[in-house]
Amino acid sequence: MKIVVGIATAGRASVLAEILRDLMRQTRQPDEVVVCAPSEEDMLGAAEALPGVHLITGPRGLTRQRNAIIAAVPDADVVMFFDDDFLADPHYLQAVEAHMAANDRTVVVTGAVLADGIKGPGLGVAEGRAILAARAQEGGPSAPEPVFTGYGCNMALRLAPMRAFDLWFDERLPLYGWQEDVDLSRRLAAHGDVRLLPDARGVHLGVKRGRSSGIKLGYSQVANPLYIAAKGEGYPRTRAWEHIMRNLLSNVAKALRPEPYIDRRGRLAGNMLAFFDLVRGRMTPERAATL
């Protein structure tokens, strides 16, 4: 089984280098590592951090960059997408390979996130490594669990069904993507199983550099779920609206006293603009990129 690690990145060269160095700790080494960024500047230090890494440039945008990675590895069996700020336990790829080899119906695997810095101010690399070390000896092997979607920060895709049914990340979801993992997971779920693999552990640092502005993200929080649900490919409208309302209420509640690391007012403005466009019948996911 040829397993390729793919990392889409932008604006985080120093963190990317640390993540690449960390990959050398994997007990099952990836057969290839491919990094895609909008410019060579975004990948400074990558070649030194991981000799042999394949560096490519492509149009800015998470979905476009991930599609470029898939296109660059036509002989791969599995692409393991890690965010450029995701630290994987040393046995992560070993667990993915064992599961994929034994379960040919599994099309998407996502791991257990021990800590997610995206929900707070973010975690440093040293903090992430300490969390992994502290949790390394916990429990024995755990059974895979069915899940609705993979989590984009650590998501392995079996490429055979993607090639057979011409499935790609939807490039109409611009910039940060926002729900691109749900969209592709649900389309792949029509051809197999989506599984959470508890033995594949990691820490998502949630680095704030390189993320979309508040207003752009706020627009996507409304536009993207409704767009994905409208495609009718396994993402119910009820789930889309639950996701939208949860983010909207959070932005409203925290707009007066926002966290210093989140642009709540920008997100709320983006939410309102998306609803305004929805009423006028002109809401599209691409509009977020123009704000």
Q: Could you please describe the fold and organization of this structure?
A:
With 291 residues, the chain is α/β, with parallel strands linked by helices. The chain folds into 2 domains: 3-204, Spore Coat Polysaccharide Biosynthesis Protein SpsA, Chain A (Alpha-Beta Complex); 214-290, no CATH class. The chain contains 10 helices and 9 strands. Strands 1, 2, 3, 4, 5, 6, 7, 8 and 9 form a 9-stranded mixed beta sheet that branches. The protein is globular and about 50 Å long. The model has no long low-confidence stretch (mean pLDDT 95).
How would you summarize what this structure contains?
The chain is an alpha/beta fold and 291 residues long.
Task: Enumerate the spans where pLDDT stays under 50 for 5 or more consecutive residues.
Answer: none
The helix-and-strand class reads alpha/beta
Q: In this structure, how is the largest beta sheet organized?
A: 9 strands, mixed
CATH fold annotation of the largest domain? Spore Coat Polysaccharide Biosynthesis Protein SpsA, Chain A
CATH class bucket of the largest domain? Alpha Beta
Tally of domains: 2
In percent, how helical is the residue content?
25-40%
In N-to-C order, the SSE pattern is EHEHEHEEHEHEEHHEHHH
Q: How would you state the average pLDDT, rounded?
A: 95
Tell me, briefly, the overall form: globular
Q: How many β strands by DSSP?
A: 9
| Secondary-structure arrangement, i.e. CATH architecture of the largest domain | Alpha-Beta Complex
Rounded to the nearest angstrom, the distance between the terminal CA atoms is 43 Å
What is the CA-based Rg, rounded?
Answer: 18 Å
Strand residues, percent: 15-25%
Q: If helices are DSSP runs of H or I spanning 4 or more residues, what is the number of helices?
A: 10
CATH superfamily of the largest domain: Spore Coat Polysaccharide Biosynthesis Protein SpsA, Chain A
